[in-house]
Design goal:
Blueprint: E1 2-5, H1 15-19, E2 24-26, E3 35-37, H2 47-59, E4 65-68
Antiparallel strand pairs: 1-4, 2-3
The chain binds iron/sulfur cluster (SF4).
Length: about 70
């Protein structure tokens, strides 16, 4: 599933990269500390990583993290 962060919502709280540092880090070019995604596609069969991604989604106070299937272009 695709993992992404909506920078219009992200406020740089850092809960995602504290929760799942293997998936997120503060973007090195952003003064607000908004999150960069390290693994943009998470395989559901990797249950440990997928669980961490879901945990990060639940921890984000801004609902900025999306974890879901990409919608094919028409
Ligand atoms: S927890 Fe949410 S708001 Fe905070 S840095 Fe991560 S994505 Fe951004």
């Amino acid at each position: 599933m695709d993992l992404s962060v909506d920078w219009d919502r992200c406020q740089g709280h850092g809960k995602c990269y504290l929760t799942a540092p293997e998936l997120f880090q503060p973007d090195e070019n952003d003064d607000w500390g908004r999150a960069a995604v390290l693994i943009p596609v998470v395989n559901e069969s990797d249950t440990a990583t997928f669980a961490r991604a879901r945990e990060a989604v639940s921890q984000c106070p801004e609902f900025a993290i999306q974890l879901g299937s990409s919608v094919p272009a028409e």
